[in-house]
Amino acid sequence: xxxxxxxxxxxxxxxxxxxxxxxxxxxxxxxxxxxxxxxxxxxxxxxxxxxxxxxxxxxxxxxxxxxxxxxxxxxxxxxxxxxxxxxxxxxxxxxxxxxxxxxxxxxxxxxxxxxxxxxxxxxxxxxx
Length: 128
Ligand SMILES: [Ca+2]
Ligand SMILES: [Ca+2]
Prior knowledge:
Residues 14-53 form the EGF-like domain. By secondary structure, the protein is an alpha+beta fold. The protein folds into two domains: 6-57, Laminin; 60-127, Laminin (Ribbon). The chain is built from three helices and ten strands; from the N terminus they run ββαββββββββαα. A two-stranded antiparallel sheet has the order 1-2. The chain has a two-stranded antiparallel sheet with strand order 3-4. It has a two-stranded antiparallel sheet with strand order 5-6. The longest helix has 8 residues, at 120-127. The protein binds calcium ion (CA) (2 copies).
């Protein structure tokens, strides 16, 4: 009889718990990693283990180091999404660009002069 996690005639073969006991982690938010003599169940990417041992969604928006959003950030299960403030349009997942209101004919009708004031997105981008 071998100790837990070992098998074979001389008890030096590792038991692959992940393959032999599907669902051994008992939590869909954990993935099983086999190792010699044992195995581990770690929270999937996007989750972190809290004090009571549960895998919880990471709120990437709560920490600027965890997200790459340049303007607004919205936490989502496993992941997060970025958004743009009003007056900006999305360039890609993380970046926004200023909508140049001066180019919009509708403004030119009732404004004599128009000049771009600030481009927050560009400023933020330059900081990185
Ligand atoms: Ca093992
Ligand atoms: Ca999240």
